[in-house]
Design brief:
- By secondary structure, the protein is mainly alpha-helical.
- It has one domain.
- It is 89% helix and 0% strand.
- It has 4 helices and no strands.
Length: 89
């Protein structure tokens, strides 16, 4: 594996842990695709740093467990905004 790829994996992992970020948020921060970040975290990182990979895996599991809550909140905010716009007109 190239050194630049290894560095990117480690940097993205640290970013995820420091910011409690999702794969999407990390992908946006690094200007990469979600698929690239997910592959880095699930396949490449364990070969580079097993302990760091375990920490990221725990964060990914947490994010997966609460994603339905995030989705519901996003929908709630969206419809509040639409309702407010309709009320103001």
């Amino acid at each position: 594996m190239e050194e630049t790829t290894q560095r990117r994996c480690v940097d993205a992992a640290h970013y995820m842990l420091e910011h409690r970020a999702t794969v999407r948020q990390t992908a946006a921060a690094f200007a990469l695709s979600k698929s690239s970040i997910h592959k880095d975290m699930s396949q490449r990182l364990p070969k580079i740093d097993a302990r760091l990979a375990q920490q990221v895996a725990e964060l990914l599991e947490y994010n997966k467990a609460v994603r339905h809550l995030r989705g519901g909140e996003a929908t709630r905010r969206r419809y509040r905004g639409l309702q407010s716009a309709a009320d103001g007109v």
